[in-house]
Amino acid sequence: MSQFALLGQRRFAPFFWTQALGAFNDNAFRNALVMLVATQMALDDRSVSLYANLAPALFILPFFLFSATAGQLAEKYEKTRIIRAVKLFEIAAMVLAAIGFHTHDTTLLLVVLFLMGLHSTTFGPIKYAILPQALEAGELVGGNGLVEMGTQLAMLVGMIAGNSLMLVAGIGPWLASAATIAVAVAGYLASRRIPLAPATAPGLKFNWNPFSETARVLGIVRRDRAVFNAVLGISWFWFFGTVLIAQVPNYTRETLGGDGSVITLVLTLFSIGTGVGALLCERMSGKRVEIGLVPLGAFGLTVFGVDLYFARHGVALAQGLDWLAFLRGAGSWRVALDLTLIGVFAGFYVVPLFAFVQARAPREQLSRVIAGNNIVNALLIVLAAGFGLGLGALGFDAVETFLAAALLNVLVAAYIFTLVPEFPMRFVTWVLVNTLYRVRVEGARHVPEEGPALLVCNHVSFMDPLLLMANLRRPTRFVMYYRIFNIPLLRFVFRTAKAIPIAGQKEDPAVLAAAYEAIDQALAAGEVVCIFPEGGLTGDGEIGPFRPGVLRILERRQVPVVPMALRGLWGSVWSRRDTRLGRARLPRRFRARIELVIDAPVAPERLRLDALEARVRELRGTLA
Fold it and tell me: Is the pLDDT of residue 329 over 80?
């Protein structure tokens, strides 16, 4: 099913529109406020600058103060009740904003800005924690992609609407007020259609102290090193995006020579690019949580961020160009392409990270993990503002600041990927598998979503573990012949994936005994283990007799056994058909079409080795 089909289903669509309308209102109100202060209140430049800098601080402050409390609310209580209360709160805030717009009461408007920050703070942990409750595992990446796309476009449209409505002569405040109140009401009505999302930790003891709870939430985030570094990655995305967005007005005016319409064009290209990248994640990942896309996204952010500097830097020769005149200028399409592709790779970067956090964090703690993520995000946003101001004080112009952020991205990405080798390992796996093969998976739902399981599969090529690793939704420990485990090019991948090397009894009994012990420990910890019970690669394309290792594993640990079969691999890259007799030859079938077929689990007490072998042969069919 396409991810767009979710927009027609009640379990997703009302929530999608609720969050999109909220993102619209956040940006419509903030930009209407800026336009009011800048153009209709006859304030001096110093006062305008004060309000322009105070506004983001007031909006971000609640994230520091109340994120931890919001995370507790989302865990302890049913989520749709909280969402509806938040949307009613938004309606009240927009009514206060309307009063402030008409009376030009800046104090009241700044209070409303703080309230909208509180609105976003409370909604944030629910926004991402509700998705795993509403969606199946295979829909998580697509759902996150839709949410990210909807958020980006809603923010863009809200930004444009807030500016445009407030600038309408004579009736700007009326139009801005009517629009924001109407959207808030529409968001509440949409929230009434969201299905119930039960509390994930109803017995949670509530801590009203925001400071101690913030420390506890950050401690929860840090427990899983991979989740914590994914949170750092998401926060870096916000840092990078904040630096870019903050420099857009100066970049547009000084480097591109454009007017306000070019600012809108630049923001539109970035937002559309991010939306497109977010939507492509599902197709590129095969509907799995594929963190291998994260290094690809980081690479693209740097490449096109650097190219943006070389595409055009220095002071523009012409000034005051509208968007159409800008696009007609020499080299402008390269600038437009860079801005769009920065957005596309930002989507590749952030969507898998959110999906990874949702899939990896314990369900009863996910809202608090998201709350901790929001706290770190807010901190990085503040640091991004200081980074931009600091470079400006050193004499950097906007495009040089872009270049500095793109180069800094290399260091940050390298740091995160060094701490968690799983990210580059998945990238290497994703590139290898998608370069060499075209894979179709049938029966992925049969792999249990939780708890231990033993997967058994036929063994056709040296690439089998990578193929399975790239196409199974759950992290899997592979048991593989120790000589394959030690292949120089792939050893990094296998070690990082915690594969288990095994040897024959006559080759190395110590390695064999250690392998069985590691398998049992992995199953005891609730992990998935995959073995190739033939004991080696097929030499003729046929399935060899199954060895009794499966039974030995089940004697120690009774777990479900999932039969699987690879089809179409014989004669592809790294199968023995093209390396037999000790002579390597060019593969006959590069980019081979192959299939992975997964059958329903078999209860351990009902398993017979001959029946298991027959079932895998049946799944394999006539094609190895």
Answer: yes
Domains of the chain: 1-196 (1.20.1250.20), 224-420 (1.20.1250.20), 431-620 (3.40.1130.10)
- Please name which of 66, 69, 59, 65 lies closest in space to residue 26, comparing C-alpha atoms: 59
Q: Does the pLDDT of residue 240 top 50, yes or no?
A: yes
- d(CA 386, CA 395) in angstroms, rounded, equals 14
Q: What six digits make up the tokens of 123? A: 């909604």
User: What is the Cα–Cα distance from 183 to 18, expressed in whole angstroms?
Assistant: 10
What are the distances in angstroms from CA 162 to CA 67, 87, 99, 103, 119? Answer: 27, 19, 16, 18, 18
Could you report the per-residue pLDDT of 466-475, keeping only the tens digit for each? Answer: 888 878 877 8
Which spans in 205-292 are helix H?
210-223, 225-250, 260-285
Closest CA to 104 of 19, 151, 166: 166
* Beta strands at 453-457 and 561-567: parallel, antiparallel or unpaired: parallel
Query: Does position 84 have pLDDT exceeding 90, yes or no?
Result: yes
Condensed to tens digits (0 to 9), the pLDDT of residues 371-389 reads: 999 999 999 998 988 888 8
The pLDDT value recorded for residue 40 is: 66
At residue 28 the predicted structure's pLDDT band, cuts being 50, 70 and 90, is very high
Say how far apart CA 220 and CA 241 lie, in whole Å: 26
CB of 291 closer than 8 Å to CB of 352: yes
The type of residue at 621 is G
CB burial of 405-429 (b: ≥16 within 10 Å; e: otherwise) equals bbebbeebbeebbeebebbbbbbbb
Global pTM reads 0.79
* Strand runs labelled E in 446-514: 453-457, 476-481, 500-502
